[in-house]
């Protein structure tokens, strides 16, 4: 059991499939600033290392990786998978799963339709909701 | 009998870290009724404690994460080696963006994109930019509409390029077949 845990921690991502991270397109590298709206077609994975302000709408199969150096301010960020290591202010909606790593700082609302994973050390302020409890 | 039972409990509690068989050794086979209870205690402790050791191992795990996890290492080196970033195919960005590196546009951009003063913006075949692009060099192989500023550098157009609007450049290169309908302005002498 312990071995299993150590393995999962070594992988860093416990919930978001790691292959999603391996195939990401780094659209906002460190030092870059993007202000605006992003829309993506299906099965696209993006990674943010810099500053992003605005909405992100990923279609089915899409994922967003917000790295430790990233700062994201968003009224609406929608993807199947969201992995957060950095700072986020705003509203996140994961159609499948959202994972907050130990360095994540989230201020705003989180909505997830299936799975939520918060690593010890992550800082979260705001509302967390899932569609399952909507009756 | 009861005393024996009590000592067994005391002995097995500190021994919780060691495998449960210790409890079985302490208690004699003559107490089958109390045995299951004793065994349940050490067995139930590890799962409850799971979160604490998990946090402990996580710290050590993250310290060695860059080399330990192949997936993480790949993304980390990819980030460190970034001299070029890309707007991938299928992505549409509307707004303003500033990059400290070369930019390759395979998707669609509407708005303004600025790269560093020594960098190049490339609009790849299939890529599309509408608005303003500013960098030292511009390479257009896709579609560009708007203000294209190659500040003092080279503006080059591929054979499949489609360009409308204004182009300012230090030097220019146009391949045969490029479809360009734009006002051209030379801004600075090319080095």
How is this structure best described in words?
The complex is a heterodimer of chains A (135) and B (191). By secondary structure, chain A is mainly beta. Chain A has one domain. Chain A has two helices and twelve strands; from the N terminus they run ααββββββββββββ. In chain A, strands 1, 2, 3, 4, 5, 6, 7, 8, 9, 10, 11 and 12 form a twelve-stranded parallel sheet that branches. The longest helix of chain A is centred in the first third of the chain and has 9 residues, at 2-10. Chain A is globular, with a radius of gyration of 14 Å. Mean pLDDT of chain A is 87; it is low at 1-11. Chain B is α/β, with parallel strands linked by helices and 191 residues long. Chain B folds into two domains: 2-78, no CATH class; 83-186, no CATH class. In chain B, 31% of the residues lie in helices and 37% in strands. In chain B, the strands form two sheets. Chain B has a six-stranded parallel sheet with strand order 1-3-5-7-9-11, with no helix packed on it. In chain B, strands 2-4-6-8-10-12 form a six-stranded parallel sheet, with no helix packed on it. Chain B is globular, with a radius of gyration of 34 Å. Mean pLDDT of chain B is 71; it is low at 1-82. Chain A binds chain B through residues 1-2, 5-6, 9-13, 18-19, 21-22, 24-42, 44, 46-47, 49, 54, 65, 67, 102, 119-121, and chain B through 46-47, 50-51, 53-55, 57-58, 61-62, 64-65, 68-69, 71-72, 74-75, 78-79, 82, 85-88, 90-101, 111. β2 (33-40) of chain A pairs antiparallel with β2 (91-98) of chain B.
Please supply descriptive tags for the structure shown above.
heterodimer, A: 135 residues, mainly beta, 12-stranded parallel beta sheet, 12 strands, 10% helix, B: 191 residues, alpha/beta, 2 domains, 6-stranded parallel beta sheet, 6 helices, 31% helix, disordered N terminus
């Amino acid at each position: 059991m312990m071995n299993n845990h150590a393995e999962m921690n070594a992988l860093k991502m416990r919930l978001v499939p790691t292959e999603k991270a391996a195939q990401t397109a780094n659209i906002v590298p460190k030092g870059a600033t993007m202000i605006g709206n992003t829309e993506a077609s299906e099965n696209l994975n993006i990674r943010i290392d810099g500053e992003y302000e605005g909405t992100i709408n990923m279609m089915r199969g899409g994922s967003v990786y917000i790295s430790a150096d990233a700062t994201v301010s968003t009224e609406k960020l929608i993807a199947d998978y969201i992995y957060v290591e950095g700072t986020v202010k705003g509203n996140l909606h994961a159609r499948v799963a959202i994972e907050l790593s130990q360095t994540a700082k989230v201020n705003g609302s989180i909505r997830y339709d299936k799975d939520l994973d918060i690593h010890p050390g992550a800082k979260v302020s705001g509302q967390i909701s899932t569609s399952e409890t909507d009756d | 009998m009861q005393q024996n039972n009590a000592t067994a409990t005391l002995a097995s509690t500190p021994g919780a870290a060691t495998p449960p068989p210790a409890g079985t050794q302490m208690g004699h086979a003559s107490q089958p009724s109390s045995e299951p209870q004793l065994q349940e205690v050490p067995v139930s402790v590890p799962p409850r404690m799971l979160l604490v050791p998990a946090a402990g191992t996580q710290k050590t795990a993250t310290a060695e994460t860059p080399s330990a996890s192949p997936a993480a290492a790949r993304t980390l080196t990819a980030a460190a080696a970034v001299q070029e970033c890309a707007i991938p195919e299928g992505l549409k960005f509307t707004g303003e963006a500033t990059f400290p590196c070369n930019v390759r546009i395979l998707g669609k951009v509407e708005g303004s994109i600025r790269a560093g003063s020594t960098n190049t913006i490339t609009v790849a075949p299939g890529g599309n930019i509408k608005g303003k692009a500013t960098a030292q060099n511009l390479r257009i192989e896709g579609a560009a509409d708007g203000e294209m500023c190659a500040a003092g550098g080279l503006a080059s157009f591929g054979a499949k390029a489609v360009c409308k609007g204004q182009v300012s450049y230090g030097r220019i290169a146009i391949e045969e077949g490029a479809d360009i309908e734009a006002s051209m302005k030379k801004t600075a002498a090319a080095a």
